[in-house]
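Quick start: read one record
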Amino acid sequence: MRAIEFINLLVEGYKEVEAKFIKSGADAASVKQVLNSFRELVNKNQVLGHERNIDWWGKNKSFDEFSSFVNDKLAAPTKTQLKRKRVVGKSIFVKEDDNWLIVIPLDKQSSCFYGKNSSWCTTIPNQNHFENYFYRNDVILIYCLNKKTGGMWAIAGHKDLPEFEIFNKEDDRIGSDKFTRETGLNAQEILSLAVRTYGNQISTSKSDYKTYFSYLEENMPGFTGKNRDLQLEKALIYTKAPYYSHYYIRMIHDHADQTTVDSIPHEIVLAAINYVWQTITYVTAPTQQMLINAVSSGKMSAFRYIVEKLKINPPNDKIIETFLLSNHAMYIDDHIELLNIMKIPLNEKIISKTVNDNINAVYFFLRYGYKVSDDSIIKLIHESPNSDFEYFLETTNIFKNVSDKVKMALIHREPNSLKYFDTTTEELRIRAYKRNPGLLLSQLIKGYYPSEAEQRVLSDEGVNAEAIENNLREAKYRLTRDIKFYASELKRYKDNIITERESLAELVAELKDENAEWKKTSPQLADHFVRAIEFQKNKIKGLISSSKQLKKFSKETKENYDKLTHGEQTIGIISRNQKAD
């Protein structure tokens, strides 16, 4: 009887608080909804202490405060949810302290979780590398994770072999000595401890996989494909064996109806697509994950199929990210070019992820007109090898219209970058001239007259304008001699061409003269005249070609002379200014 009375009191309490909140001006429907949510939280023991008491809320808090509290509680994960979030597959902790977590993953889920920030192939969710290493080749994988620095190293060894390999976070193979210098750990001791202490546990974790895989090896060859085989599917789901998954689906596709194909479990289809991306063509309505796996496996061919055949254009961000990030860095140019040809837009997030994965992608995003952040471009400028940097600087216009911030970084690395910009500021020019005073001198020779601040760069850098003026004058003198030489040679060539043309005319006339004496006495000389005429024509062509080349040299020399004249005049002014100072 007391329990019934208590429940009635609670119900009355909720009704009183509901009436009070509505009377204060709150929306009736909202009040009812929030009270129902609060009641559920109390029943699940997610509200403790006096906050469980609805009367306390009615007496001490407004509806807005009450509503905010309830919504925050609903958004917060429960203890069960937090616990589930920590479930990351099966693993063995070899060591854990404030600095290090050294862990042996015993399944794919654990490998992907602990290695998620590395480039290790064994941590790629939709690939079969972990299974190949751990289950089939009996390789023990040990991940050494530094909690404070974020450093990551992987040791790959075998319980029956003395050799082992070590990989850093970027998946580069390193030696034991370097590993010890970088970590203070001994890889051999860690591997020996793992084998000695956890060998049996590691072996046991592999037994189920090997049992299922043996079942596939024994029974898949006899599979007809006319109907689904639930035992085979169970083994395929556990092992995710790519070859057998593809074989299973292909047999059903060839011998059963489409409905049967579409009913095959999702996990099997994904594993098959990892082996042969064209498996996706067997499925009537591929899922998002199937499309992602196909792109990861089939690269450009799969991406074209999705866009052109399935008419998914544009694909969603996840598919585009997979297309850009799952391919080898050396092919990034082709992938970005394809996106550009297909007119597929890229948002800032995708571009940023791609650049973080492959800094050279900046070159190609810029080349094809995609917008890249200044910070990414500057990072490229700082990190790009000289050969790549010089090639793109000289052969493309990708840095033509970048921001002044990027231009400054370019000039800091290579002052000659100045000549590739459409527009410059005095600050940019001064920075470039300070880095390379010769750059200003080359500008002066082209007739550019610098500002006073730019002129001061010459003085600040110890450049003697008067000496340069004298050098220019001497250079002009040498060019004057060259100009006279070319003029003389051109006249000589012209005279020679006239003479040789006259000789050619005489030969032609002699050949055509029917009354020529030689035709009566030695008609066989006709062939001699034909060859002589051909020789004379080639000789004239050679003279004309050489004459054109001389004209080109003469023109370039005169242009250089004019530039030196401009430079001499400008330097002369600067020289007088320096003397006045």
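Confidence is low (pLDDT under 50) at residues 1-10, 77-87.
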